[in-house]
From TrEMBL:
Keyword Repressor in record: no
Keyword Transcription: no
Protein name per its UniProtKB record: Cytochrome c oxidase assembly factor 7 homolog
SUPFAM superfamilies for this protein: HCP-like
Length: 252
């Protein structure tokens, strides 16, 4: 598709970009290809910066063509108000749920977080069992954030009523009615999976849990191993940020 274009010449770059948009429109509107419709949405979003049109394409591709990634996109647009007047978490939730049903793990994550009450400004009625199921589905698909969040739920527990709940003093929670009871073994299991999926915070938790013997048999050698993994992930993250910063300077 790019053959014959000299990308060092501004006019040819512009021509290529316009032709790309034409190809995506044809593939979406004429050939009805969901993957191409999603690419058209990405094109309108990142190249044309027309978020309103991009949102319409994502919405149609989600509802009409059952494309999970587009459900995630229009869910995010609806959540934060991108291309719209105001954000609406309640209206965003069905898009995330549909995206999850269509096999998109990040949609499962977002649906789970909303239902679990993870966002302080999101006015969605809490439903911990439903939220848990979405998070579990996302974790099963190797989403590190979902696994880490589940680990946290088991680490301190999820009370039915937060009024008399103190996550920092477990001994004061003996009479608390839990929806999810604290379970160090389950907390460790999900933290380990999150770490294996590359979550730096989970790796740090796994190291500490091995060091203290929380939810797993105490093992100083494994504690040191996961501490090393944590540091390696931290260095990799800092290097990535540095590279992106330098690229930004070069592009100015």
């Amino acid at each position: 598709m790019a053959f014959g274009f000299d990308f060092k010449r501004e006019e040819e770059v512009k021509e290529y970009i316009e032709n790309l948009g034409i190809e995506y429109r044809f593939g979406c509107f004429k050939e009805k290809k969901p993957q191409v419709c999603h690419l058209l949405g990405d094109y309108l979003e990142s190249i044309k910066r027309d978020f309103e049109k991009a949102g319409k394409v994502y919405r149609s591709n989600c509802l009409d063509h059952n494309y999970g990634k587009s459900c995630l996109k229009i869910g995010n647009y609806t959540l934060i108000g991108k291309g719209l007047l105001t954000g609406d978490a309640e209206a965003a939730l069905p898009y995330f749920e549909k995206g999850c049903e269509l096999g998109d793990p990040t949609s499962c994550l977002h649906a789970g977080l909303l239902l679990a009450g993870a966002g302080p400004n999101f006015k969605v009625k809490k439903d911990i069992p439903r939220g848990y199921n979405y998070l579990k589905k996302s974790c099963d698909a190797d989403d590190d954030k979902a696994c880490q969040y589940l680990s946290g739920m088991y680490l301190v527990g999820v009370p039915r009523d937060y009024k008399n709940f103190n996550p920092h003093k477990p001994e004061e929670n003996k009479n608390v009615d839990f929806l999810i009871k604290p379970n160090p073994k389950e907390a460790f299991k999900f933290a380990l999976k999150a770490c294996e999926c590359g979550n730096i915070y989970a790796c740090a938790n796994v190291s500490m849990m091995y060091n203290k013997g929380d939810g797993v048999e105490k093992n100083p050698e494994l504690a040191e191993k996961y501490k090393t993994i944590t540091l390696e992930l931290q260095k990799a993250s800092e290097l990535t940020k540095e590279l992106k910063f330098q690229q930004g300077l070069e592009n100015k």
